[in-house]
């Protein structure tokens, strides 16, 4: 892990850690969140911890936090072609988010500065 952070006026994107299991469960157990991202709602904090360790604690995956409170409100990540389960060109990557993309579009200009 590179332990990098991206910051905007409102958001902090940072690496996931085991201590985030409760926060992940808080939003990932919501039946309105998971299905929109293609996965079922989490059933326990332990399940969220397993998912953190298996998928989220990896290169290219970030917790999306409100900068002011540090509350985790989502996940965003990218996978290079060799790590993606989608058929994409070798020089492309898969980009995904578990929140509607408009949440992150609000910050796009600042990230590109």
Structural features, described:
With 113 residues, the protein is an alpha+beta fold. It is built from five helices and five strands; from the N terminus they run ββαααβββαα. Mean pLDDT is 79; it is low at 99-113. Strands 1-2-3-4-5 form a five-stranded antiparallel sheet, covered by helices on one side. The chain is 30% helix and 23% strand. Helix 1 (21-28) packs across helix 3.
Q: What number is the mean pLDDT?
A: 79
Helix-strand category:
alpha+beta
- The name of the CATH architecture is 3-Layer(aba) Sandwich
β-strand number:
5
**How far apart are the first and last residues' alpha carbons, in Å?**
24 Å
Q: What is the molecular shape?
A: globular
Largest sheet: 5 strands, antiparallel
Beta-strand portion reads: 15-25%
Question: CATH first level: which class?
Answer: Alpha Beta
Number of helical stretches of at least 4 residues: 5
Q: H/E element string? A: EEHHHEEEHH
CATH topology: Aminopeptidase
How many domain regions? Answer: 1
Give the neighbour order of strands across the main sheet: 1-2-3-4-5
